[in-house]
Structure formats: structure tokens, C-alpha cells
Design brief:
The complex is a heterodimer. Chain A has a three-stranded antiparallel β-sheet. In chain A, helix 1 crosses helix 5. By secondary structure, chain A is of the alpha+beta class. Chain A has five helices and three strands; from the N terminus they run ααβααββα. Chain A has helices at 2-9, 17-28, 34-41, 45-57, 80-99; strands at 32-33, 61-68, 71-78. By secondary structure, chain B is an all-alpha fold. Chain B has one domain (25-201). Chain B has seven helices and no strands. Chain B has helices spanning 2-19, 26-49, 64-95, 103-128, 135-150, 157-174, 179-201. In chain B, helix 5 runs parallel beside helix 7. At the A-B interface, helix 2, strand 1, helix 3 and helix 5 of A face helix 1 of B.
Chain lengths: 100, 203
């Protein structure tokens, strides 16, 4: 029975590679701009935007829109909820691996 | 199950990539090291030609033309060192398909720039007061501090390199007259040593 407990922490929201990547970057950095995130994860605009929006809906990340001159700049940061959910997700992954 | 393994690997990879400047090439250090050694040799010949023994440990009176000559050699050495440093790291980023001008690259630059700038200005001030024997130790110490502060954003080896440079600079300050030798050791030999090591480590 104990085994099942771990699996409940495997978070479906983080199953996509892109979301996993966004959260990983935001765990170690504070605000990350859209452009930097794209470079870190090597993604296209649309791909990043849709996954970021999904994480924002879940309140795992917050979005800040600022203007640098006339150019809009979007930045992301992990919320405390997002951090703890992702932390649990990593721990669950690690436990699952060690069990094998 | 290996899917979970891959997930963890991916997480680690992204975390590293978002905080560290990975393009730093060992060859950058080797290139800068050889530029430094060449600079030391040329300076040595200039001093020798003027019959100035650098090893007296006494404050030497250098005529203004020689001073300018040495300053030009120093500038050329700096440009060569920086160019080779940037060139090899740029090459590495292209080859490994890593982004070059990342936010970590910027953070690395900012962290390193302050001590470097202070060190450069301080060296010019020492020169103004004719305290030549302290210039080499000051450059080594400030450069080492710059590396220590920048090491947070790149490979950990840079931390140890910075530490060695600071120690070498302090020793150099205690042994006046051997500044050029210590400068060559710090900017030449240490760079080549660490550069070679890092080149093989992060291939």
C-alpha cells in the first residue's frame, strides 16, 4: 500500500517535457524572461506560450508583463505553490527510481 | 521506468543550463595563457634592452618612453588574451549548440567586471605613483577576486583558479622584484594548466 502514496505525488501537470523544463528553470532562478526561457529550453514561441499559460492557470507560476521602451517583455516566476508542488514531484520521481 | 530517469536528467540539465555559463572553453584559458607568456617575454626584453634588472627588488627608475612601450605591450597582451578567450568559447558554444549570450553569461560578466575594473584602475593609480612593484601583485589579486565572484555562474574550476591567483598575488606582494615572474605564473602558467584540465574535463 505504501507504494501508492508516492505515485500520488507524480504530478500530471508536470508530465510534459516543456512544463518540466519551465519549472526546473524557475526553481533555480527568480524571474526569467520569455526570450531567455526560449533559449534555455530551445523552444518555439507558441510552444512556450501555451505551456506557460497552462502552468499559470494552475497558479504554479506568475507572469509579469513589462515594457522595455516600446517592446513588451514577459517574465515568469514560480509561485510558492508551484515550488512545493514541483519539489514533491521531484521527490516522487527520485523515490520511484530508488525503488527499482 | 527509464522515463522517470530521463525526467530527472532533464530537470538537472535545465537547472544547470539556466544558472551556469557552460560555453566557457578550456582553450580560452590556454589561449589567454600563451598571450600572457608572450607579453611577459616581450616586457622582459624591453627591460633588458634598457639594462634594467627587474629582479633587484629596488624601485627602478624607468624612462617615460620605456614606460609607454611596456604599457602598449600590456594593452596588446590584454586584447590578445580577451580575443582568444572569447573566440574559443564562442566556438565551443557553436559546436555544442549552446546559446552563448545567455542571462548567465551576462551575470558572469557583471560579477567579474566590478573587481576587474577596480583592479585595472587601481593598477593605473599605482603606476601614477611609480609603485611598479605592486602592479603585478595587484593585478593578480583583483583578477583572482573577479574569478571568485564570477565562478558562481560557470564551472566550479574557476573558483579554484581564482583562489590560486589571489594567493599568488599575495605572495608576489611579499617578494618585491619578482612581479613579472609571478605575473607570468598567474596569467600564463595557471591559465594554461587550468585551461588544459578543463578542456579535457568538459569535452
Amino acid at each position: 500500500m505504501k507504494k501508492n502514496i508516492d505515485i500520488t505525488y507524480i504530478n500530471k501537470d508536470f508530465e510534459s517535457r516543456v512544463r518540466l523544463g519551465i519549472m526546473s528553470a524557475l526553481m533555480v532562478k527568480d524571474w526569467v524572461t520569455f526570450v531567455d526561457m526560449k533559449e534555455i529550453l530551445q523552444l518555439s514561441d507558441g510552444n512556450l506560450a501555451s505551456h506557460a499559460a497552462a502552468l499559470e492557470n494552475k497558479k504554479y507560476i506568475e507572469v509579469k508583463k513589462a515594457f522595455i521602451g516600446k517592446k513588451p517583455e514577459t517574465s515568469y516566476r514560480a509561485t510558492p505553490e508551484g515550488r512545493s508542488a514541483f519539489q514533491k514531484h521531484i521527490e516522487a520521481l527520485e523515490k520511484l527510481i530508488h525503488r527499482l | 521506468m527509464s522515463e522517470y530517469h530521463n525526467d530527472l536528467k532533464h530537470i538537472r540539465n535545465i537547472m544547470e543550463r539556466s544558472t551556469t555559463f557552460l560555453s566557457l572553453s578550456g582553450l580560452s584559458g590556454v589561449g589567454a595563457g600563451f598571450a600572457a607568456l608572450a607579453g611577459v617575454l616581450v616586457t622582459f626584453f624591453i627591460l633588458d634592452r634598457n639594462q634594467i634588472s627587474y629582479f633587484d627588488g629596488k624601485p627602478n627608475s624607468i624612462n617615460p618612453e620605456t614606460e609607454i612601450e611596456i604599457a602598449i605591450v600590456a594593452l596588446i597582451t590584454l586584447v590578445l588574451g580577451l580575443t582568444s578567450g572569447l573566440w574559443f568559447s564562442w566556438q565551443k558554444s557553436q559546436k555544442q549548440n549552446l546559446p552563448f549570450w545567455t542571462s548567465s553569461a551576462k551575470e558572469l560578466l557583471i560579477a567579474g567586471a566590478m573587481p576587474l575594473l577596480a583592479g585595472g584602475l587601481f593598477s593605473i593609480i599605482l603606476w601614477k605613483y611609480d609603485l611598479f612593484f605592486l602592479i603585478a601583485p595587484a593585478m593578480l589579486i583583483f583578477y583572482g577576486l573577479a574569478l571568485l565572484s564570477a565562478s558562481k555562474y560557470t564551472h566550479k574550476d574557476i573558483f579554484y583558479l581564482g583562489f590560486c591567483e589571489v594567493v599568488l598575488g599575495l605572495i608576489a606582494a611579499l617578494v618585491p622584484g619578482y612581479g613579472l615572474v609571478f605575473w607570468g605564473l598567474g596569467f600564463g602558467i595557471l591559465h594554461i594548466f587550468y585551461g588544459t584540465m578543463m578542456y579535457y574535463k568538459y569535452k
